[in-house]
Design brief:
With 293 residues, this protein is of the alpha+beta class. 67% of the residues lie in helices and 7% in strands. It has a domain at 68-152: Metalloproteases ("zincins"), catalytic domain (Zincin-like, 2-Layer Sandwich), CATH 3.30.2010.10. The chain has helices spanning 2-26, 38-68, 79-95, 128-133, 136-151, 154-186, 192-233, 236-247, 279-292; strands at 71-72, 101-105, 112-118, 121-127. It comes from Ignatzschineria ureiclastica.
Length: 293
């Protein structure tokens, strides 16, 4: 846990440092508060909005390896590892992408994830908990789901979407805060800078929640697409069986943090902030596609 906190703190320090350097070099450090017009202000907000998501994307593989203790299989040491590596390689060939790094991480929860900076520079990993509760057909479908995420470029897409959302959260919160502060100052109710600062913080929280709802909705859409991709690599029934295996173990359905969430599910999955659709709906979509086929 302490190691994860240190890595999280280190990444945030890096993000702040990068933002500060870019704003200073480009001369946009004075534009963030709107002093130079809305055009430069939007550019400055874009630097703030995209820096975190892009750095997280670029660091995703190394970060997840360290925080989750992922064992990368370089030379299979067991029959299962050999089978697992062969499945990933075969699916990568079918999808026309480079074989990702292949890993296993120690966790009692049945889970898996895909991450990486691009479709040809990725990592796919499954948990020991997944290995203990699923048969090989189900695991193959889970791997197919993750490989579909890689082939679809979901990690990059979500990072870019988050960058756009972050940009407009920062931008609109400052525009509205500027209006509120100017009115408060003209009426003599508060100093302009104090009102601006407080209003900006409040609006960033409010707009941040709205942005998360949009990002979560888009993520749920991508999950259906990844299910369909996994089904093409295996079968609709095989993919549905894997999801059903998770549905039978609701106490184990936990989301992985941030962009590493790929096959986890939470008890609050039906709410607006869920990154994954309900398992029942995903299974229904697969079986309906199977019947149409």
């Amino acid at each position: 846990m302490f190691k994860r906190i240190l890595l999280w703190a280190g990444m945030n320090i890096a993000v702040i440092a990068v933002i500060t350097i870019i704003l200073k070099i480009t001369g946009l450090d004075t534009a963030i508060s709107g002093g130079r017009g809305y055009g430069p202000m939007l550019l400055a907000c874009a630097v703030v909005g995209f820096a975190g998501s892009i750095i997280s994307l670029l660091m995703s593989k190394s970060l997840v390896k360290r925080t989750m203790g992922v064992h990368i299989i370089e030379s299979p040491q067991s029959e299962f590892e050999a089978w697992y590596v062969n499945i990933v390689k075969r699916q990568a060939e079918m999808l026309g992408i480079n074989t990702p790094e292949i890993g296993i991480f120690d966790s009692p929860e049945p889970n898996a994830f895909a991450t990486g900076a691009s479709r040809n520079n990725s990592l796919v990993a499954i948990s020991t908990g997944l290995m203990s509760v699923m048969n090989k057909d189900e695991i193959e479908a889970v791997v197919g789901h993750e490989m579909a995420h890689v082939a679809n470029g979901d990690m990059v897409t979500m990072a870019l979407l988050q960058g756009v959302l972050n940009t407009f959260v920062v931008f609109f919160s400052r525009i509205i805060a500027e209006v509120v502060a100017s009115r408060g100052n003209s009426e003599g109710n508060a100093t302009s800078s104090g009102v601006y600062f407080i209003t900006t913080l409040v609006l960033q929280v409010v707009f941040g929640f709205l942005a998360q709802i949009i990002a979560s909705w888009f993520s749920r859409h991508r999950e259906f697409r990844a299910d369909a991709g996994g089904a093409k690599l295996t079968s609709n029934q095989q993919m549905a069986n894997a999801l059903d295996a998770l549905r039978r173990r609701p106490e184990m359905n936990q989301d992985l943090p941030g962009e590493f969430a790929a096959f986890g599910f939470t008890g609050s999955i039906r709410n607006l902030f869920s990154t994954h659709p309900p398992l029942e709906k995903r299974i229904e979509a697969l079986l309906a596609a199977d019947q149409r086929g």
